[in-house]
Amino acid sequence: MANHVENLYNYHVWANQRIIDHLKTLSPDKYQKEMKSVFSSVSKVLSHLYLVEYGWLNTLEGQSMNEAMQSSFQIQEKIEKLPIEDLETEFHTLTSRFKSFLNRQEDMEKRIMLDNPWAGLRETSISEMVLHVVNHGTYHRGNISAMLHQLGDSSVMTDYAFYWYSENVIPNG
To answer: Looking at the domain assignment, is residue 172 inside a domain?
Structure first.
């Protein structure tokens, strides 16, 4: 069984995929529709989720936070213009990289010094950074759900408890 941090990351991947699968049922116009909300469109929220996770993984892999943010900024325009199917492919590639990183770790509590350009220095652990990625994803999937309701659509359940049960479904005899 995976450790708790890896399990939470797997939940994050599962929840992202549920949202992506649902968003693929929308028309491209609705997915990219400009609206007044936390983000200007559902597509921008999903791109933001990708870009932030991309940046955190680069930080975990040894880039400074400033370098990692610059890496994300360099691909932002490209990522934001992708149709959902192509962004889904990018998420799969990123997830593979992230899981590979996690599998190489011998100590999830290894301390890392972050130099956040806006907040300064802070020592943290690999596990804490992964938990931040998961929490950040949960927050913004909530934004997507709210925006879908504004557009007259429903969303999908991505609660952690729903994930527990989705993994343990016992087929009828």
So the answer is: no
Q: Is residue 171 part of a domain?
A: no
Separation of alpha carbons 15 and 138, rounded Å:
8
How many Cα atoms sit within 13 Å of 8 on the Cβ side? 14
Q: What is the CATH number of the domain that holds 51?
A: 1.20.120.450
* Per-residue pLDDT tens over the stretch 68-103: 999 999 999 999 999 999 999 999 999 999 999 999
Does residue 143 belong to any structural domain of this protein?
Answer: yes
Residues 163 and 138 sit within 8 Å (Cβ to Cβ): no
Q: Torsions phi, psi of 116, nearest 5? A: -75, 120
For residue 48, give the amino acid letter: H
Q: Which domain holds residue 113?
A: 4-27+35-165
> How far apart are the two ends of the chain, measured CA to CA in Å?
26
